[in-house]
Each structure stands twice: as C-alpha cells, then as structure tokens.
C-alpha cells in the first residue's frame, strides 16, 4: 500500500502537471490572439491602401472622358469610328469638325466616299487620372498629364510632357529637340503614339486596278503574294549584297481615283482632322515604323531597309550566323547576337527609323537601338522609304503594317523651325498635344509652361478599355 508521503508526492506532481498544462494553454491562446491581431492589422492596412489608391484614381467610380481633338488619335474626344467601305480598315475622325460632304477619306486606301453615320458616333475616350503617382515622384518626358490651364483655372487639360525644368525646347523637321539634341523615343514609346499609314490585311474590294503598297522591285523577283502574306521562295545565296527586294510604295490620298495611283512619300496627312484646311503643304515624314510577322527557314536571310533623306539603313537577320547586323550606306555600324529562334518559328518584328535612331524589336522586346547622324541634313526624302529583302531560303511575311511618328509643327502649322522663348523655369513643364495641327498648347499660350502645382496627375487608359 502507498504511504501517506507517496500519496502527497503524487498529489503534488499532479498539481504541477495541471499547472504546466494551464500555462501551455494560456501561451497558445496568447500566440493565437497575437496572430489574429497581426492579420487584422495587415488587412486594415491593405484595405486602407486600396481605398486610398482607388480614391486617387479619378474616373474609376465616375467616368472621365476626353472632350476635345487636341490629343487625337492617342486620346480622342467625341468622334466617328468609321469602317472603310472599300478596304475595311477602321479609323477615327473628329466629330466636332466634319466636312460639308459628310464623307471621310480612308487613311489606308484613300477611298473618299465613307459616309459619316450617326450609328458610328462615339463619346470621347474614357481615361483615369492618377493623382497618386506624383505624390512620390515628378512627371517624366513623354507622359500624358491632366492639369488646370495655366491661364484659366476653370479648365482641365490633357497634354503630353515634352520639356522638363531647365531645358530649352525646339521643333525641327517634325521632331522635338531638347537642349539641341533630338528627343529619342524608345520602341514602346513610338508604338504608343504611332499613326497608321498602311495595313496589308485590308485589300480594297470596291476599287479596281489600284496599285499595291508592297511590290517586287524586280520583274524577276521570287516574292509572291498569297492570302495577305508575302512569300519568298528563291535560293539566292545571302552574300550581303544581292537580295530580292519587296518595296513599299505610298500613294496620294484624294477625292478622285486618279490621285490614289500617284506615288508619294509618306506625308503628315491628318486623317483625324477630316475638315482641316492646311495653309501649307504637307510634309515628308521619315520617322516610320514597320511591323510584321516573319518566319525564316534554315539558311534564310531576312533584311529590313529604310531611308532617311540621303541615308539608307539595313538590318540583316540571318539565321545561320545568329547575328543581327546594321548597315548605314553599306558600312556596318553595329552587330549584336540574334536571340535564339527555331527555323520557321514566327517572330513579331518591329523595325523603325525614329528621332535619328534605328530601332529593332522581336516579339515585343527591343534588341537593337543605334543612333545615327544624317550625312546630308538638307537632302529630300526619297522612295522607296521601306523595303524587305530576302535570300537563301523560304521566307514568309504577314500582318504587314506601316506607321508614322507624330510630325510636330510650329504654331502656324508650317514646317519652319520653332523654339520656346525661354528655358523651362524650375518646377514647370512644357506640354504639347499629339494632334499638332489643332492643339493649343505651350506653343501658343501666353504663359507657356505649366506649373507643377497645376498638374493633377498622370492620364492612363483603363485596362478594360484598351
């Protein structure tokens, strides 16, 4: 039998065990309580952050729409969205200033009898104004911003920033110059504001006998057009000089079929401003972007060429060498490794001359960026402005589009050079509209620059509308 001492020890041991168990339970409850409090605090912070972010995005709860034409076509006010009755290209034009004929010219094929119908009328583009972004930083060149008018606090305006504090801004040959040097856009920036010139996915159906935009340069060419694609089937060896060329031809736009067969360089034609009477001749545009989808067989060599005045630039993409070579007037100026691709694998190509730089992209990624100097600054633009060359093996080109950059003008819409009267003051910004022929901006305002205090936020398109 257990002694009284043993019984007492047993009772003490049980009491100690119960005490330890109770402390362990209390500790677990405290740790669980702290975890819940931490999670609740994080949730509160996240909810507060999201609420503040939503509050700083004007236009998310109550829609904000563009009302004028000064930013078209990047951001359009009330406009017609027209489907060309000849080629089927969809284009926009200002609805507040339309021709008396109530007809619009297609910027792609030049068909002039497109009726402006009420069913094609659309409200201005919906945008968001991000008030948050400039609480933490400063506006950057190229950004779209909303601000109160520097001479009228009751007006809210949307423009693009081109001049930062301390900079001298000028316009020459349609380009923006910053402190004497051209503002050089990236490939992404160019794509964001490029204007369509030609889309080979849309052949004409009403008009007969119109010349094609892309034509073989030689009668003995191996380029063939099939199902809105261009096929090269020759086996000429890619020796770096002898290529089979496919040339881009631009045609004048006008109200008669005859003008649609007259060759022309790419001009700063205003398809958005259908009723605008330009008091000066249209200007040659050398800043062009070519986009397409290409597939190249083994041993094939694909070449993209463009001209800027007296200078010719060629980008050679040869699979067997796995190199991308750039030539200016026959002299190699750059070579880079070609991103690996399997033979015949489709590649989305972007090739551009813009702001005195050669740009080349593959599948949305910029792989070549090379500045250049014009050999003759006064040389006129020549034709063809764009060419595609093939050699070695089978090549297929589809979804071919040609775009042009915005051609900026001085206040009277001529090609004369212009410069701001003074350097942009501290905490101020110089702004321009993307539709320079109708935009009223820092070129005309008495107080040309916009104070930082007037800038409300950055303007973006809602992702569900893009």
UniProtKB/TrEMBL annotation:
Q: Indicate what this protein is called per its UniProt record.
A: Signal peptidase I
Q: Which GO terms describe its cellular component?
A: membrane
User: From what superkingdom does this record's organism come?
Assistant: Bacteria
- What are the Peptidase S26 domain coordinates in residue numbering? 118-193, 414-464
Instruction: Provide the protein's localization.
Output: Membrane
Quote the NCBIfam families the UniProt record gives. Answer: sigpep_I_bact
Keyword Hydrolase in record: yes
Family statement: Belongs to the peptidase S26 family.
Q: Which CDD domains match?
A: S26_SPase_I
GO MF annotation terms? serine-type endopeptidase activity; signal peptidase activity
């Amino acid at each position: 039998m257990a002694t009284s001492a043993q019984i007492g020890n047993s009772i003490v041991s049980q009491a100690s065990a119960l005490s330890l168990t109770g402390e362990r339970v209390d500790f677990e409850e405290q740790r669980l309580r702290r975890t819940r409090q931490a999670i609740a605090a994080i949730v509160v912070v996240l909810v507060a952050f999201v609420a503040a972010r939503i509050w700083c995005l004007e236009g998310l709860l109550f829609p904000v729409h563009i009302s004028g034409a000064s930013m078209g076509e990047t951001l359009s006010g009330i406009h017609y969205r027209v489907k060309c009755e000849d080629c089927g290209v969809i284009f926009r034009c200002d609805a507040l200033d339309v021709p008396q004929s109530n007809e619009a010219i297609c910027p792609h094929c030049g068909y002039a009898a497109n009726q402006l119908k009420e069913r094609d009328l659309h409200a201005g583009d919906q945008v968001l104004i991000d008030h948050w972004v400039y609480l933490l930083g400063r506006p950057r060149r190229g950004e779209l911003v909303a601000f109160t008018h520097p001479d009228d606090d009751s007006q809210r305006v949307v423009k693009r920033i081109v001049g930062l504090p301390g900079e001298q801004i000028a316009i020459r040959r349609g380009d923006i110059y910053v402190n004497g040097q051209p503002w050089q856009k990236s490939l992404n920036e160019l794509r964001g504001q490029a204007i369509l010139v030609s889309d080979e996915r849309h052949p004409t159906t009403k008009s007969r006998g119109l010349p094609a935009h892309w034509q073989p340069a030689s009668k003995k060419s191996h380029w063939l057009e099939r199902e809105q694609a261009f096929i090269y089937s020759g086996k000429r060896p890619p020796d770096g000089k002898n290529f089979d060329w496919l040339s881009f031809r631009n045609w004048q736009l006008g109200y008669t079929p005859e003008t649609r067969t007259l060759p022309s360089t790419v001009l700063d034609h205003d398809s958005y401003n259908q009723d605008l009477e330009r008091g000066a001749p249209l200007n040659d545009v050398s800043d062009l972007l070519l986009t397409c989808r290409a597939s190249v067989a083994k041993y094939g060599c694909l070449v993209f060429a463009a001209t800027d005045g007296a200078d010719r630039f060629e980008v050679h993409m040869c699979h067997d060498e796995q190199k991308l070579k750039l030539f200016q007037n026959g002299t190699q100026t750059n070579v880079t490794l070609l991103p690996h691709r399997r033979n015949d694998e489709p590649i989305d190509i972007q090739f551009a001359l813009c702001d005195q730089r050669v740009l080349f992209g593959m599948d949305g990624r910029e792989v070549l960026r090379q500045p250049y100097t014009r050999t003759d600054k006064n040389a006129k633009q020549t034709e063809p402005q764009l060419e595609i060359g093939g050699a070695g093996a089978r090549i297929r080109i589809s979804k071919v589009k040609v775009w042009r950059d915005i051609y900026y003008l001085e206040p009277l819409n001529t090609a004369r050079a212009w410069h701001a009267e003074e350097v942009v003051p501290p905490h101020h910004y110089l702004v321009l509209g993307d539709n320079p022929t109708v935009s009223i901006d820092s070129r005309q305002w008495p107080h040309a620059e916009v104070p930082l205090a007037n800038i409300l936020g950055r303007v973006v398109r809602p992702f569900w509308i893009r």
